[in-house]
Amino acid sequence: MEEMYEQVSTVERERARLREAVMRYEEENRIQATSLEEKNIEITELRKHIEIQEEKLNQQSHVREEKINNHMTTIQELHNELDMRSKRIKELQREKESLEKNLREEVQQLRDELELSKEKIQLQQKELARLEPYKKRSEEMAQIKADLRDCETQNLRLKEDVSLLQKEKANVKELKTAIEYLEEQLAQAKSKAEGFQQQALRLDKKLGEAQEAKNDLLQKNSILEEKVNKHKAKLRQLESSKQPNSTSWEGSGALQYDEVLDKLRKLSKENELLKVELENKFDAEKLKMKNDLEDAIREKQMLQESHQSAQDQIARLQSNLQALSNNMNDEEQSSETQAKLLQDLQSEISTIVREKDDYFMRLTRTEITLSQLTKQHSDLQTQFEVNEAKVKELMLDNQRAMQTISDIQGLLMKEKEGKLSIQGEVAKLEAQLTIAQKENSNLQSEIERLRESERAARDELLVFKANSESNSSNQTQEMIAQFMKKTDELQLSSQLSDLKLEIREKDLKLKEQDRDFRLKEKELSLLLERTQEEVTLKSKELQYKQLQWEKERKTLSEQGSVSKKLLQNLQKEQRLMSAAFHKVGLELYKERHFSSSVQSNQE
User: Fold this and answer.
1) Is Coiled coil among this UniProt entry's keywords (predicted)?
2) What's the pLDDT tens digit per position in 407-461?
3) Max Cα separation, the chain?
4) Partner of 68 for a Cys bridge, out of 56, 57, 89, 223, CB 3.0 to 4.6 A?
5) What's the fold here for domain 176-327?
């Protein structure tokens, strides 16, 4: 969408630029029209001046008339050329106006097409916004499908549970008694295991206390050994410091030495006894703890084996009960068990009926949602057909725009051919101008020659006036008349040269106008190319949108087929459920009939 807005903004900028170009072209056309009017005024003034000169020339002599006639023919030819060029300029102006008119019409058409494309884009945006809730609903359909699958699986589980409950009803009491007995055995085994664990904890505690006592005895032993070592060191000192002559040492020292030795012997004996006692005590406690641990491990293994045997016994009992329940006949059951079974079956059937009602409610809801979705699908399909018709209209408008562009290109080709013809005429005029320039140079040489002859004539007049005063006045008048004729001819030739210069200037102006016209034509061709590119871009966008619409139509058709399949599956499930409930009803009827017959037999 942002790209489309950017394209619209670029198109609006191009429109503003085209408006500015058209305004600029109109101003240039006004300026050219004013310049052409000024040139026409100048041409009329030149014509008047030429007429005045012609009147003056008619008053001259026959010889001068011939020259004037020759000059007049050339002037007439130049006038004819000017008329032809003015006509050509008018034709070019008319063609230019027609081209500008066509361009304005085309620009207006392009503006209209842009407006239409904007409206269509807005409509498409609205339609996309309308399609979003349908997309959300299609996503919700997937959730509904998942819910349906969950309901199916839940229904199957419930059926399996019902069948299992029906099979296991007869075995519940015996299983309960067996399980209670085994639970009691397990509780006893657990209590024994807890007692053994407590005993093991007590033994661990005693072992820790014995270890602490052993550490204390070892510390005491180390202290006693240090004391013994100290006494031994003192004895060595006494022996080293003993003198044979001293009598005092023999009395008291001998006594002290004997006492110390006795103490040392006693202490060493006590130490050895304590060591033996500690080792015996520690070994006895160690053996006792080891035996207790072995007993606890054996007890634990026995408990595990008993637990495993209990588990095996439970499994055997369950298998036996299952076999007994399968082998039991309906006649062997008592009336009380049958009544209980009937009550259980009725409660289960009521739950199944409730579940059936819930399931049917869900089915009705899904059918309603599916009908709504099918209706929305049909509405979307109709809307898609309308949008497809609009896309076709857009394609036709695009084809019309391409046709107008091709027509404009044909007009441009014709204009180019006209330009080529104009260029040929301009080349011819340039050749004529070169010829006129040559004639002008010849005339200028003649003018120079006439001026020289005029100077010579003046000199001759002066000489004639000085030398011959006796000549008659008639001869002098004739000479003066001839001199005046020559001067008039010189003036006419100068006027002709001026006229030729003016014609040359006008030719240059015409060339400049032709160049400006070519530049404008190039600008117009560039504008046409840009518009053609924009039209091609729009056609591509339309094709892309058409592809998107086709994809959406395919997805909607696929969703419709999926919804139809869902409806078919739901109808099949409904038929299966009705058949299953019919079977359950028959079984209930049979059981009630059997219970009524049993009660009648008992009575």
Assistant:
1) yes
2) 655 666 666 676 666 566 656 666 666 665 676 566 566 656 656 765 665 566 5
3) 214
4) 57
5) Helix Hairpins (1.10.287)
pLDDT, tens only, 44-75? 777 787 777 767 766 665 666 676 677 677 76
CB-CB contact of 118 with 1 (8 Å): no
pTM, rounded to two decimals: 0.25
Angle, helices 254-327/172-240, rounded to nearest 10 degrees:
170
Q: Which residue has the tokens 């008694």?
A: 177
- Burial class of 361 by CB neighbour count within 10 A (0 to 12, 13 to 18, 19+): exposed
Q: Give the residue-averaged pLDDT of 202-224.
A: 66
SS in 3 state form for 316-345? Answer: HHHHHHHHHHHHCCCCCCCHHHHHHHHHHH
pLDDT tens string 332-351: 444 455 456 556 655 655 56
Cβ atoms of 257 and 167 within 8 Å: the answer is: no
User: Measured on CA atoms in the order 196, 198, 200, 206, is the torsion positive or negative?
Assistant: negative
Burial class (CB in 10 A: 0-12, 13-18, 19+), 499: buried
CB burial readout 383-415, b (16+ within 10 A) else e: ebeebeeebeebeebbeebeebbeebeebeeeb
CA-based end-to-end distance of the chain:
88
Task: For 8-37, give one letter per residue: b (16+ CB within 10 A) or e.
Answer: eeebeebeeebeebeeebeeeeeebeeebe
Radius of gyration of the chain (CA): 67
Quote the CA–CA distance of 415 and 428 in Å, as a whole number.
20
- Phi (first) and psi of residue 243, to 5 degrees: -115, 135
